[in-house]
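Hello,

I think I submitted the DGJ job twice by accident. Can you confirm which output corresponds to this input? Input:
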Amino acid sequence: MSIIYNEQTKNFQLDAKNSSYVIGIFEGGYILHLYYGAKIPAGEDFSGEYYRGYQASFIPYNKAVRDAGYPAFYPGNAPMEYPTNGAGDYRTAALAILNADGNTVTDIRYESHKIYRGKPRIDGLPSLYADENSAETLELVARDPYTNAVVTLYYTVFDELDAIVRSVDIKNDGDKAFKVDTAASLCLDIHSMDYDWIHLWGQHCQERALSMTPLEHGNQSISSKRGASGHFHNPFAALATHGTDETHGEVYAVNLVYSGNFTISAEVDAGCTTRLVAGINDHDFLWEVKPGDSFRTPECVLVYSGAGLGEMSRTFHRLYLDHLIPEKWAYTKRPLLINSWEAAYFNFDTDKLIAFAERAKELGIEMLVMDDGWFGRRDNDTNSLGDWYIYEKKLDLKRLTDTVHAMGLKFGIWYEPEMISPDSDLFRAHPDWHIHVPGRPETEGRQQYIIDFSRKDVRDNIFEQMSSVLDNYDIDYVKWDFNRNMTEAGSALLDAEHGLEFYHRYMLGLYEFLEKFVKKYPDLLLESCSGGGGRFDAGWLAYSPQVWASDNTNPIDRCRIQYGTSLCYPASTMGAHVSHRDNISDYNMRGCVAMAGTFGYEMDPRTFSEEEKALVKQQVANYHKYYDTIHYGDLYRIVSPYDGNQSRSIWSYVSRDKKQALLTVATFQRVFNQNLFVRMQGLDPEKTYFCEALNLRASGARLMNAGINLCDQLRQIGQAKEFFFEEV
Ligand code: DGJ
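Support: Only one job matched these inputs. Its output is below.
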């Protein structure tokens, strides 16, 4: 049993692999957060936690609790499990309901609970999955007696991972409609402010850069108002004790399973405690719930690590491989691909792509992906999005797919299903199908608009158009792109009362489409993309096992992008290619870095020199040799590209049985006369390993403690090498 309810203390204890989470039901039905951290025995007395230390003048107290004979109880400085607005707690609210009287005072109290093995999936939203052998779920039911909102807090605890998945359902059990103004997926009240606030910021070509700063009094937050998770902040954040590194420190991390507008905030109050809240962004959000209806928040994953960021990441990776990424793909080897974009941009035809495939085939590449430019009359980015029929003057898709398949290669195709060009047949036929606010000038992005996926008629049209290609041609892979963010966010079908439901309705429409799409095409490999890595989130990973990580394929920049991405997302999700673009590095470095992702090429194979061909063949061989270790093994980040003089990045993957390890060392700057000692991690100290590249036989204990000096291996700027260790 991972979840225990103690009748006497009225505490719930949720035990994950090495961690415990304790919730208490206090007088009056207040639901309090009592503990989250390293595992503790069940049944501890937490009653001292109900009242917090600092004096509470100017913090109102609950009279009924005092009248029941308890010391004064101040909701505004107590550790609340799912805090509400306007009833004594001035900190960030997780829940605010606009009631029929026009105020947002909300106050929920415990009513009942249910504990069961397994985990339910959420209808209409991406969600993690788990059967009764791996997880247990608590449903904690509370009610706001004033609105009769029944609020169910869901917690799924994983037996073998330090992870809890949370979400909240808000049902209208009354007879008047209300509006959900704020509904976070989770709140975590922590007793201190002695933490660093970690998040991943970025922009196009610089996604998921690491930021780590000490918490300060007040509110620090990351968010998106773009209608997409976005390049600028990933929906991931963590609080880590000061001094946390890859192997030490206590970390609480959250990652939203959602691809739209979000906020994750950490508020430090006067008592120096911290409130972490994550969920849908409540800016431009107001959701009507009629009597009998419900609103369900997206899920949010909460991970605890008592052993630094490395352990946190390995928990996320294992959790996503085993419980989020579609089962069909999580442990299926992905085809090594070549993509036409950086090789040809819009400038291709059938023969050119066949020539790409022929050269690629000789090198051992397994799939040709035809990127943007195959539909409508698209020769540049000014037109045709929405016209998903073949550009016949440019392309004979039947001859192309037949020829490519006859060579034994797979074939992939690019779409941008959520977009419409003002210069397209679809736009001319349906000028009100894009997101807009009538009467206001529209803001363009990349000369295109976003089509209104909150509308079923729009979704059906796009689905049919996509089906008419996918049903009639042999296609193995779809790259789903999204090259701008939302502005003038309105739908022609939403009335004034429901205008602020738009952003979330769009997401629900998108998820409905994806659900239907993956059901109809279960064998099709879907890769998500958004101008590089602008929608790299756990919501997408529920449908698409890989996401293009960035349009920046320079390996030095990629070391940083992939380092940040790896904090939360496993290697098998990270689209990474070797290209010619912006490279100051050697070819080998591009390969070593891309190998830490899904791996592929984004260049014209007809131009390869004999030397390049030999290198590609070697990389293809390495890809197969190292695939399982990288994609199913555990990641150990040994030297961060953000560390010290930022001259290198070093990481390794260790197979789960610890029989193999692939160590990769990448240098960014020339370092004169320095040793390059690498102490490996995650090996079995008792095992003996052999590394052919170094002709070295050594124990796991020596490799991890004494390390190895690689100074004579890497001397140039922009070099990388892989060192494969196998048990002997
Ligand atoms: C942006 C993507 O990130 C690129 O890889 C490419 O697919 C282009 N869009 C095509 O327009």
